[in-house]
Design goal:
Elements: H1 6-16, E1 21-25, E2 30-32, H2 33-50, E3 57-61, H3 66-78, E4 81-85, H4 91-100, E5 103-108, H5 110-115, E6 126-129, E7 134-138, H6 141-148, H7 150-157, E8 178-183, E9 193-197, H8 198-212, E10 221-224, H9 231-244, E11 247-250, H10 257-267, E12 272-274, H11 276-291, H12 294-300, H13 303-320, E13 328-330, H14 337-345, E14 350-352, E15 354-355, E16 362-365, E17 378-379, E18 384-388, E19 397-402, E20 409-410, H15 414-420, E21 427-435, E22 441-446, E23 451-452, E24 458-459, H16 461-468, E25 474-482, E26 485-492, H17 494-500, H18 504-519, E27 530-533
Parallel strand pairs: 1-11, 3-4, 3-5, 5-6, 10-11, 12-13, 13-14, 26-27
Antiparallel strand pairs: 1-2, 6-7, 8-9, 9-20, 15-16, 16-17, 18-19, 19-21, 21-22, 23-24, 25-26
Length: 556
């Protein structure tokens, strides 16, 4: 398979879309493609004069913004290795990743700039402030000089003005050359640095083009909600759209459901990439209240009218997402079955994909027209997927995948790499699933979270939690094991509790009724013995998965 230069694709897009809008900070400034090229060029001059070499690591940590995107593109097109770090990480985690990755420079956003401690990152030569690329810390005279004289050097290099023909990012990169190191959120302890080569970036973009090229065109608006430092957001809300010549909007602040809903209405994105939590919140807060009254319930049970009512609800839901979207692609975590069932019934154009940081990220996908509810699609373009089970259709086994998307390994961790990628090149995902005769994959849970029942039965806590999350007053939950017993930890919907004026005792009664209802829906061996109230919200990873290990320390 002939794999083109990824940096050449970035160059081509900039030249072809020179005068189009490229990156906008929502409610802020807009950069056109030629502005992006100019910023990249200035950063290249600064890197070169500061002594940064091809193959050096440059870390970036800050909220999504146009300036973040330019710094990332400048790193990649210079031939340096990008280390995107999630801005939600704690200062200690950021220091760890910067040190572990051997980063030479660190770009920081406005909030991160006030949190990190340069003395704890002794290997850095400088810290650069993302909004204006000013120096927060410089440890070399070369870097200080380069930044202070940057405009002067740029003017000398391009005395007339900077033009298309000056853009040249093509260096003979080998498809297996390391492009970026992405540290997994790692719900268990210290995260690992996933080494993604250029072939993975290209293969993910090529996959996106194969399924969306008829739907996404240059000049189309897209909205970036997920952090670009996460591969799901990086690949499908940024790199692919940039290569296509789209106009990408960044929220630049914490994406609450209200802000997201407003942005959808203003921007009218052509595609929406989201994690289940965002979609579930919009559906539960905006749509469910309208249909959960007695009149609507009655109408939905009248066969003749129900179809019309569902169409009406579908129209409202479509409008809530901006009214211009081809499909909503959901991934990154398990999708609540009640919400999924509802979206399927109203024929909303959604699909659920499956991926992993180790694949940069895509593994499985199906267009919403072909999507089988409850699944996460079939093997994506360029990828092979199989289930490690004697009977893949009926007995869950580990999901294995192979192809150009797969990482080179974990940075400085040969032992973990050998455990993940076998001698035949198959990546062992650590996820369990089944596969039907058409190749649709159904995820059953993570092999790491699987619990063992009293008689050796496999219990997937995610399946129990999915049902529990649909019951009264439950905001979120996890199921843990204590000895032979299963315990449900529930963070209640305190807004609802307040509205109904419930006492602590009332809430306990509701949860006991929930426990009885839950146990009537699940096999005997996975029944829950007790539901405990968790007053604080569960701590989560940046991907919004609950950090289970924090709550399982009390297991006997």
């Amino acid at each position: 398979m002939e794999i083109p230069s990824f940096n050449a694709l970035i160059e081509k897009s900039i030249k072809e879309h020179w005068d189009l809008d490229a990156l906008t900070d929502y409610k802020g400034t807009t950069l056109q493609y030629h502005d992006v090229a100019r910023k990249i060029e200035k950063l290249h001059i600064m890197f070169e004069d500061a002594g940064v070499k091809k193959g050096d690591k440059i870390a970036l940590c800050g909220r999504n913004s146009a300036a973040w995107a330019c710094a990332f593109l400048a790193t990649l097109t210079y031939g340096a290795i990008a280390v995107p770090i999630l801005h939600e990480f704690l200062p200690d985690q950021i220091h760890n990743i910067v040190n572990h990755s051997d980063a030479k420079l660190l770009f920081v956003g406005d909030v991160v700039a006030t949190q990190v401690d340069a003395t704890k990152m002794p290997g850095l030569e400088g810290i650069i402030y993302i909004p204006d690329y000013s120096l927060v810390v410089s440890r070399t005279d070369k870097l200080t000089y380069a930044r202070e004289h940057l405009n002067e050097m740029f003017g000398k290099k391009y005395p007339k003005y900077f033009r298309k023909e000056h853009v040249n990012y093509y260096h003979e990169e080998n498809p297996d050359e390391l492009a970026l190191i992405n540290y997994t959120s790692g719900t268990t302890g210290f995260s690992k640095g996933v080494m993604l080569p250029y072939r993975s970036l290209w293969s993910n973009a090529d996959f996106a083009d194969s399924v969306l090229s008829k739907r996404i065109h240059k000049g189309d608006n897209t909205l970036s909600i997920l952090p670009m430092a996460h591969m799901y957001g990086m690949a499908f809300e940024f790199l692919y759209e940039f290569i296509k010549g789209c106009h990408i909007y960044y929220l630049t602040r914490v994406p609450s459901p209200a802000i997201i809903a407003q942005a959808f209405a203003d921007i009218k994105p052509v595609i929406i990439i989201a994690v289940p939590l965002v979609i579930e919140k919009i559906v539960r807060k905006k749509i469910f209240p309208k249909i959960q009254n007695n009149r609507m319930r009655m109408l939905l049970h009248m066969p003749v009218i129900a179809k019309k009512v569902r169409e009406k609800i579908g129209e409202q839901m479509y409008k809530a997402f901006g009214g211009n979207v081809y499909e909503v692609i959901i991934g990154g975590a398990a999708f609540n079955q009640e919400v999924e069932h509802f979206m399927h019934r109203i024929e909303f154009p959604y699909t659920v994909g499956y991926g992993a940081t180790e694949c940069g990220p895509i593994i499985c996908y199906a267009d919403y027209h072909d999507f089988v509810p409850g699944s996460c699609g079939r093997a994506a373009l360029h990828m092979k997927v199989r289930i490690d089970s004697q009977d893949p259709e009926n007995i869950p086994g580990e999901i294995l995948c192979k192809g150009p998307n797969v990482m080179l390994g974990y940075y400085k961790n040969e032992e973990a790499t050998a455990k993940s990628i076998d001698k035949d090149g198959w990546l062992h995902t650590g996820d369990l699933g089944t596969m039907d005769g058409d190749g649709n994959v159904f995820i059953k849970g993570r092999s790491k979270t699987m619990l063992l029942g009293a008689n050796g039965q496999n219990i997937y806590p995610e399946e129990i939690e999915d049902k529990l999350n649909s019951l009264a007053m439950v905001n979120e939950s996890i199921v843990i094991q204590e000895g032979q017993k299963l315990i449900g930890l529930v963070h209640p919907d305190y807004d609802e509790v307040k509205v109904l004026g419930l006492s602590t005792e009332d809430l306990a009664n509701v949860m006991e009724q929930n426990r009885v209802a839950l146990n009537s829906m699940i096999p005997g061996y996975s029944k829950v013995s007790e539901i405990r109230i968790q007053e604080e919200e569960f701590e989560k990873t940046p991907k919004k998965s609950i950090k289970r290990y924090l709550y399982q320390t009390n297991v006997n």
